Each structure stands twice: as structure tokens, then as C-alpha cells.
């Protein structure tokens, strides 16, 4: 059962086509909506919120028609815009509880949920101070809190890591994973940063120039390839030759060796043992051993895996 | 208590709790916005400084009514300082000052700091937002346009020797008091919000509102006294137009108002009010339609 569904969704502005016959089904989980800037991500989110009429086609969110039942949708959806959207002269507590009430919560519930949500996003003592004095990271947390405060079924997050430093980015991504996995709220994360989506998303929707490029479960992209990646601190060619001599499919690429585990006759663990023994025998330093996974970048190259365009 | 040893004294993160209670939808959203707007109008939950103008204006506007009632108690019918019909005219400048100070509080920051997309992502429409802000400012303005006159009304009734007879005497004025108060509040709120919604900062908005009322008022007064274009004079001052409309609807002319000097048929002021108010609403509608989400 899909939470969000679009059919031939088109949005034309004078001179620009932002969405071009987009048809996609989106289910539960953390959904990465990826595309370059201007690919139509924000336009799609606004149409789904019922804030922007589509030129053609239709969209439903939680079974509600975005064109006619926007108000109902917005009661059940949280939205975190890309841009700054916080008044500087009120505190996070005041602002978030006000937004809770504007989302339709009675005042007692609004206060309770505000306290809960601000704790979940990691705002503590500072929540009583005016927002104007907050760091970018804290402001992003307030933006997330106001989108979460009415316990939405679906969250729309537009470039949630915008303007954050690396540590802030990690924290925001960890929060989104928590929201998706622990809170059970489906999060649609629009981002132009493939690397971030790769870290958090279960499912991926890639759009380009308003068209659906590809949609697939991310696990199918990043699942194990059946190859073991062994990185050493020196030229790995001798290691590859020794492993090949043991009857394994191994070839070196600079300081790394890729060993084919799936075709190893003695099983997976024999490969690990062989890698360990031969590395020690050669006196090499082992930097890392990991299962090689498909990279999300493969998606944007021709012939990606498991194509499932709706 | 049967707390087992390992749970005693431990603080647990109880994790995320969902919300299963009532959702009040669009009506709840509008009500919340009106309530928050009213608090903003009176500076509630804000610094003491932001309470000075609204509460000062309310006190100053009510003072003449209190004084008039006190005089009536002491001196009977001998002196009649304020009637119902000239009360709003006599507290004149307080109304624009209140509007100039409080209308920008309601709308400017939401536009300037791009908070509007957050409101529009809630179960309300752009029109709902505008209506809620208009309602908040209009209700707030009633503290100046209706409350003092009601104080005067109640005071006059209670100060009378025969209270029941006084109720009978004064009751006829009540529709005029309420009608005029509501009309002033709604029209002034509409003009104040329309002007404020166009300003980039609160101070500019306040200046623009004051300019329209005070400069217009002074200009109108000068024209009126110069005598040559006296019939045009009221139309420079929204308060004079409102006074004309009040007189047209409920009767009772104000000696100092340019309306009397102009000598035009009173229906003209009713018409002018009917143009001025929807024009403000149109400005608001266009302004908010133009704001992208």
C-alpha cells in the first residue's frame, strides 16, 4: 500500500516545466528524493502538500487528493522547508507550541508534545531563549521540531542538512533515521546530496528535469555484491597473486584486492582465513576488509541494478 | 511501592510517543491564530515594553468615560462631557496609534522571516490566515472602540437615581454604540493590516499607518478650516469618513468633525466606507496570494 502516489503529474511554469509527467508510488520508511537543484523536488513536495496546483495529472497523499483535500493532508503531514522560516524574537518552546496549535492540537497537548519533541531533536535549556540567538544547527532542529510536533504520518524534509557543518550533518541524519525507524514516521527527504541519501534512505526516488529517473529499494542498490574488498598499506599485487594461487578469484587494484567470495569453493570463512594468513606472510598492513556494496552513484550511470520504474 | 531494585532511581528515555488525541483541523488552526494574534495585540507573553502602547491606549481611551461617569455621579446631569456619538471622535488619535503599533506585530515578521510557508503547510488557507489576523486586530480594537463607550453606558445607567428607568432611556443608544464600535474596529483593522502587509519592517509599517491617519487627518482639518474645499476634507481622514458613516447609520453629529463642515449627504460616507474596506481586503488578498510557499 503506497502512502503517496502520483500519476502523470505535470507542473508547467511560464517557460519552465518543473514536473514532466511524473508517476511514482512511495511507500513507508525513509525515502530519499534525489535530484540536482532544479530537478523538481521542491515543486513535487508543494504539490503533495496541496499548496501548488498541478498543471496536469494527479497526486494522492495517504489516500487524499492533493488538489481537493489539501487541508486534510496538511493535518497529517509535517513540512520542513529548505529556507529559514523562524521568527527571531520568540523562543523555540513558544514557537513550536504555537505551530502545534496551528496544526490543530488542543493547547494542553500542544505544550506536552512541544516538550517531548524538543527533547527528541536535542534542544534543552536553550529552548527558552529567543531563536534569533541560535546557531544554524539549533535552528535546523527547531525547523524539524515544528514539522514533527503534531505527530504527522509523513514528514517532508527539504534539504534538511543545508548549511550544517559535518558534525551537525551527522546529527541531523541520525535524527532522520531515528524518526523513520523508531518513531515510525515516513520521512521524504529531498536532497541533492547522494551521499547523504545513501546513508539514511530505505527507498530511493531519483528525479531529473521533472521526470522520474529511477525508483528502487536502496538495499537492492547497496546490497552485497559477493565481493570482498581488502585494502592494504602497500601494493597489493603480491597478495592477489598468492590468493589466486590458492584457487580464488582475486585481482589487485593499487593497494586493494577484490576477492570473489561467492565463487570460493571452501566457503566465505576460508577466504577470510586466507586473506589473514597471506597478509601476515607478506608482512602487509591491513587497512580494512569489507563486503563490497553497490554504490548509489551506479544509479545515475547506465545499467543500474534492479530497475523498478513504476 | 513494588519497584524492583534495578529500576529504582533510573531515568528512562521513554522514547517517542505518538499523538492519538483530537485534531481540531482548520477551525482549530484559525482559532489558534486568532488567539495568538490577540495576545500579540496586547503584548501578552512579551516584554513589558511591548505592553506600553496597547495598554496605555486602552487606559487613555477609557479614562474620559470613567471621568464622565464620576462627574455624573457627583454633579448629576449638569455637565455632559461625552456623549455616545462623539466619544470615538474625541479619543481620535489613540486609534491610529494603537493600529500603527499593533498591526505590524501581527503580519510583518511572518512575511519578513518567511514563517508563512509554515502556516500554509498547516490545515489552513492563505485566506484563513488573513481572516484570522483581521479578526485578532478587530477584536483587539474593540477594547478602544467599544469598551470605553460601554463603560460610559453602564456608568450612566448605574449613576441614575432610577436605574430601571435609566436602562429604558439609554437602551436606545446601545445598537449605535455596538454598531459604531464594531464598524470602527473592522475598518481600522483592515486598513492597518493592508498597509502593514506591504511593509518590509515593523517600523516602516507603523510609520506608514501613522502617516495615512495623522497626516490625512491634519490635512483634512486644514482644508476644512480653510473653507474652500471643505466638502473634500473628510476624505483625507479615514476617521472622518468613519464618523460620517456612523452618523449616517446611527445619527448624532460631532461638532468638531470635518463631516459637519463639509455638509455632504451622509450616505456618501457610507459609500466611502464600503469602498475603503473591501479595497483593504483586496490589497491583503493580492499581497498574500503573491507570497510564494
Helix percent band of chain A: 25-40%
Which radius of gyration of chain A do the C-alpha atoms yield?
24 Å
> How many strands, what sense, and barrel or not for the largest sheet of chain B?
none
Mean residue pLDDT of chain A:
88
Low-confidence stretches of chain B: 1-7
Large-scale geometry of chain B: globular
N- and C-termini, Cα separation of chain A: 14 Å
Number of helices, where a helix is a run of at least 4 consecutive DSSP H or I residues of chain A:
11
The count of DSSP E runs of length 2 or more, i.e. the number of strands of chain A, is: 14
- Mean pLDDT of chain B comes to 89
Output the strand order for the largest sheet of chain A: 6-7-8-3-9-10
Describe this structure in words.
The complex is a heterodimer of chains A (310) and B (293). Chain A has helices at 41-48, 70-76, 92-102, 107-120, 136-148, 166-181, 194-200, 218-222, 237-245, 268-282, 297-300; strands spanning 4-13, 16-26, 30-34, 56-61, 64-65, 77-80, 154-158, 186-191, 203-208, 211-217, 224-232, 250-253, 256-260, 286-293. Chain A is of the alpha/beta class. Chain A has a six-stranded mixed beta sheet, sandwiched between helices. Chain A has a four-stranded antiparallel beta sheet with strand order 2-1-4-5, covered by helices on one side. Chain A has a four-stranded antiparallel beta sheet with strand order 12-13-11-14, covered by helices on one side. In chain A, helix 4 (107-120) packs across helix 5 (136-148). The relative contact order of chain A is 0.14. Chain B is mostly helical and 293 residues long. Chain B has 13 helices and no strands. In chain B, helix 4 crosses helix 9 (174-197). The A-B interface holds A 46, 49, 51-52, 71-72, 74-75, 77-79, 81, 83-89, 94, 98-99, 101-106, 109, 113, 116, 120, 146, 150-151, 182-184 and B 15-19, 21-26, 28-29, 32-33, 35-36, 45, 109-110, 113-115, 117-125, 293.
Amino acid at each position: 500500500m503506497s502512502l503517496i502516489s502520483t500519476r502523470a503529474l505535470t507542473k508547467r511554469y511560464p517557460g519552465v516545466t518543473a514536473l514532466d509527467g511524473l508517476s511514482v508510488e512511495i511507500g513507508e520508511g525513509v525515502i530519499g528524493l534525489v535530484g540536482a537543484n532544479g530537478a523538481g523536488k521542491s515543486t513535487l513536495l508543494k504539490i503533495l502538500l496541496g499548496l501548488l496546483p498541478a498543471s496536469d495529472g494527479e497526486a494522492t497523499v495517504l489516500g487524499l487528493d492533493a488538489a481537493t483535500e489539501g487541508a486534510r493532508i496538511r493535518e497529517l503531514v509535517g513540512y520542513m522547508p529548505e529556507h529559514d522560516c523562524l521568527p527571531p524574537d520568540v523562543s523555540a518552546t513558544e514557537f513550536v507550541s504555537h505551530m502545534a496549535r496551528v496544526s490543530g492540537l488542543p493547547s494542553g497537548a500542544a505544550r506536552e508534545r512541544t516538550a517531548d519533541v524538543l527533547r527528541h531533536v536535542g534542544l534543552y535549556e536553550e529552548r527558552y531563549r529567543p531563536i534569533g540567538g541560535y546557531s544554524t544547527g539549533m535552528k535546523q532542529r527547531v525547523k524539524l521540531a515544528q514539522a514533527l510536533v503534531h505527530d504527522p504520518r509523513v514528514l517532508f524534509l527539504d534539504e534538511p542538512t543545508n548549511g550544517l557543518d559535518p558534525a551537525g550533518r551527522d546529527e541531523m541524519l541520525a535524527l532522520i533515521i531515528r524518526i523513520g525507524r523508531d518513531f515510525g514516521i515516513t520521512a521524504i527527504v529531498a536532497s541533492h546530496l547522494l551521499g547523504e541519501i545513501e546513508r539514511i534512505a530505505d527507498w530511493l526516488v531519483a528525479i531529473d528535469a521533472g521526470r522520474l529517473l529511477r525508483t528502487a529499494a536502496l538495499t537492492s542498490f547497496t546490497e552485497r555484491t559477493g565481493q570482498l574488498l581488502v585494502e592494504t598499506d602497500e601494493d597489493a599485487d603480491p597478495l592477489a597473486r598468492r590468493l589466486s594461487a590458492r584457487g580464488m578469484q582475486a585481482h589487485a587494484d593499487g593497494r586493494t584486492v577484490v576477492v570473489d567470495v561467492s565463487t570460493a569453493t571452501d566457503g566465505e570463512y576460508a577466504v577470510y582465513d586466507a586473506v589473514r594468513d597471506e597478509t601476515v606472510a607478506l608482512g602487509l598492513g591491513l587497512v580494512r576488509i569489507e563486503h563490497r556494496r553497490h554504490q548509489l552513484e551506479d544509479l545515475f550511470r547506465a545499467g543500474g541494478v534492479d530497475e523498478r520504474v513504476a | 511501592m513494588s519497584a524492583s531494585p534495578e529500576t529504582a532511581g533510573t531515568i528512562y528515555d521513554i522514547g517517542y510517543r505518538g499523538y492519538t488525541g483530537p485534531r481540531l483541523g482548520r477551525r482549530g488552526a484559525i482559532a489558534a491564530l486568532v488567539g495568538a494574534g490577540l495576545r500579540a495585540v496586547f503584548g501578552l507573553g512579551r516584554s513589558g515594553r511591548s505592553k506600553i502602547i496597547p495598554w496605555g491606549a486602552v487606559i487613555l481611551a477609557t479614562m474620559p468615560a470613567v471621568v464622565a461617569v464620576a462627574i455624573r455621579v457627583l454633579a448629576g446631569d449638569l455637565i455632559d462631557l461625552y456623549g455616545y456619538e462623539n466619544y470615538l471622535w474625541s479619543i481620535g488619535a489613540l486609534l491610529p496609534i494603537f493600529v500603527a503599533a499593533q498591526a505590524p506585530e501581527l503580519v510583518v515578521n511572518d512575511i519578513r522571516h518567511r514563517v508563512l510557508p509554515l502556516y500554509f503547510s498547516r490545515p489552513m488557507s492563505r485566506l484563513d490566515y488573513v481572516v484570522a489576523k483581521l479578526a485578532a486586530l478587530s477584536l483587539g480594537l474593540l477594547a478602544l472602540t467599544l469598551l470605553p463607550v460601554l463603560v460610559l453606558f453602564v456608568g450612566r445607567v448605574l449613576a441614575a437615581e432610577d436605574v430601571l428607568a435609566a436602562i429604558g432611556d439609554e437602551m436606545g443608544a446601545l445598537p449605535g454604540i455596538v454598531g459604531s464600535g464594531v464598524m470602527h474596529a473592522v475598518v481600522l483593522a483592515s486598513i492597518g493590516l493592508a498597509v502593514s502587509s506591504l511593509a518590509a519592517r515593523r517600523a516602516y509599517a507603523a510609520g506608514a499607518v501613522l502617516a495615512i491617519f495623522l497626516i490625512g487627518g491634519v490635512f483634512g482639518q486644514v482644508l476644512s478650516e480653510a473653507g474652500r474645499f471643505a466638502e473634500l476634507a473628510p476624505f483625507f481622514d479615514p476617521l472622518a469618513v468613519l464618523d460620517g458613516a456612523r452618523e449616517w447609520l446611527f445619527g448624532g453629529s460631532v461638532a468638531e468633525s470635518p463631516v459637519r463642515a463639509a455638509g455632504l449627504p451622509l450616505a456618501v460616507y457610507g459609500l466611502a466606507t464600503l469602498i475603503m474596506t473591501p479595497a483593504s481586503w483586496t490589497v491583503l488578498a493580492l499581497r498574500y496570494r503573491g507570497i510564494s510557499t
